[in-house]
Amino acid sequence: MGLRTSDAPGAPARLLIAASETDANLFYATRFLAPDPFVFLWQGPEKILLMSDLELDRARAQAAVDTVLPIRRYEDRAKAAGVERPGVPDALCELLKERQIRSLLVPGGFAVEYADRLRDRGMTLTVKPEPFFEERLMKSPGEVEAITAALRRTEAAMDAAVGAIREAEVRDDLLWRQGRVLTTEEIKRLVARQLLDDGLIAQHTIVACGEDGCDPHNEGGGPLRPGRSIIIDIFPRDMETRYFGDLTRTVVKGRAPEAVRRMHHAVLAGQECAFRSIRDGAEGEMVHREVQRTLEHGFQTGEVDGRMQGFFHGTGHGLGLDIHELPRVSKAQATLRAGNVVTVEPGLYYPAVGGVRIEDVVVVTEGGCRNLTKSPKELEV
Questions:
Q1: Rounded to whole angstroms, how far apart are CA atoms 57 and 53?
Q2: Does the structure show a pLDDT above 60 at 6?
Q3: Residue scoring higher pLDDT (297 or 206)
Q4: What separation in angstroms does the CA of 156 have from each of 17, 164, 188, 243, 300?
Q5: I need a surface site. Which of 104, 111, 197, 207 has the fewest CB within 10 A?
């Protein structure tokens, strides 16, 4: 990974003010992780940080930037200029004055408070929609390796989850394991422990059984039952590299109903359609349309009795330092390029039957795509 000096001389300096723990653009630009907001300024070839005393030494030792400056120095200048209680915008304005910068490029989520203060001081701010850093779209070999490493450990957690369901006994239309009813909550705890042992953190893991699985983002709850589809969607972040894995499988304990078997077969066919269609230069919207056409054979999509059913979400999304990032493989316009890493996750959802979703992660290549996921796709366990 590396940011290139691509802006022409005289172009606006890029500005971020955020906490890199929650802002992937800032972490990407600096490789410095901090829970509190700090200032990143990119002027020409120079990347500059404005840091508090608390983080100054650590930033100088760890951040992948050219210059780390103490914000206190510029707060003192602002105070000497008459600002009674200088804050971040005041200190930043002193730095901008020193660097003779008047024009700034900021992301869409830039704080209005900061924008107003900077404009009041005569600065010109231009919003750059995502991707704020174009380089984030094309993953380097090191980034692909980091995502793959996260995926391998996500697969181990999936194996543990499916293994627990496989081990369970069926009694009174419930799954029992180790002397108690097996619940979605227990599977989530099992997944979380496995991932934590492997250096990843999972939030909002989905274990959705039967009717719960008809809402793609329903995290699920309660007892697991035999003969119903169980969607397991695990998307943890590596605590060291910050890159995400993303994996979804659908299983049934025991014999799956014929309707669920047909849905599972169709979703697999939809995945294969996407794998054939994804390549450098392919339009994400066209890939999505091809998957939609594949699933239309035998499965209708639309609103019935106030609820959506069928295939009503995108085929996939970019994956990296954010769980959902560009490019999209959906009705949104996006041209896929070699080096993009995207999910492929078609699904079918019918309230009377349940839901089926299967998700792999691929890296786009010049002639197609390479599947980074190795997890099996068995339905009945």
A1: 8
A2: no
A3: 206
A4: 37, 12, 14, 17, 35
A5: 197
